[in-house]
Amino acid sequence: MTSRSVSSRPPADRSADGPLQRALGIIELVAERGGASAREIADGLGLPLPTVYRLAGELADAGYLVHIRSERRYELGTELHRLGMSLHRQLGLSRPVTREVARLHESTGCAAYLAVLRGSELVMVHVVDSPDCPRLQPMRFGFHEVPHATAFGKVLLADLDVPTRDEYLQRNPLRTLTAHTTVDRDALDQELTDVANRGIAWEREEFLAGWACAAVPLRRPDAGLLGAVAVSAQPDRLVPRQPQIEARLRQVASRIAALLRGVTR
């Protein structure tokens, strides 16, 4: 079983960025590669080698990187761990919460996911999977770009009023990803009404061929959206067990929502 929080987007070319963006790009690249030499950072980000040495040195002085001199490479510093722990506390990622996600994975045999609402977006914060049922890939793509094709995205869209949904989908037009992706707006709106009424969203090979996903919203006491919990697997493993999967998701969603609200049960 593999349990971990989800990292941010992958590093990109930083040659035209300012100093702050370049420094962040260095941190991202080192995180993605599990460590990197100055030359690897320079090549990966399109930066001059002297710039890399200067910025990486400043990041190391501040504790965000560590310079392993014997290996001539940089690794993440402990200051990032401190910030990560602070973020986990803000997100409510306590051990009881992550245990619930792990139990969801164990009881269903599916990859299990937790997303929380940050601003106007659902952000993936924890995933538990296994070699037998791995997480969906790529994990960084989907919620913002193609919400109509993911179970998490449908939970978010179903929670929006019509004007807000219209604006959201204008920024993220309906795109065809597989033969099963819904790209007709009327059909999508009808499905989202069902999601809102039933409190559960499904996608069956709409995001990735050969995979299905189900998600249930996490609610505040006033019924506002807190986040969502979901599972994914191959359709023949997930869809035939729909009643059991839905019941288990609702149970876990109720417990996680209570934990995120600071309520004990």
UniProtKB/TrEMBL annotation:
Segments traversing the membrane: none
Molecular functions per Gene Ontology: DNA binding; DNA-binding transcription factor activity
Domain HTH iclR-type: 17-78
Keywords on record: DNA-binding, Transcription, Transcription regulation
Organismal lineage: Bacteria, Bacillati, Actinomycetota, Actinomycetes, Sporichthyales
GO term, biological process aspect, one: negative regulation of DNA-templated transcription
IclR-ED domain mapped to chain residues: 79-265
Protein name: Helix-turn-helix domain-containing protein
Domain of life according to the entry: Bacteria
Organism in which the protein naturally occurs: Epidermidibacterium keratini
Keyword Transcription regulation: yes
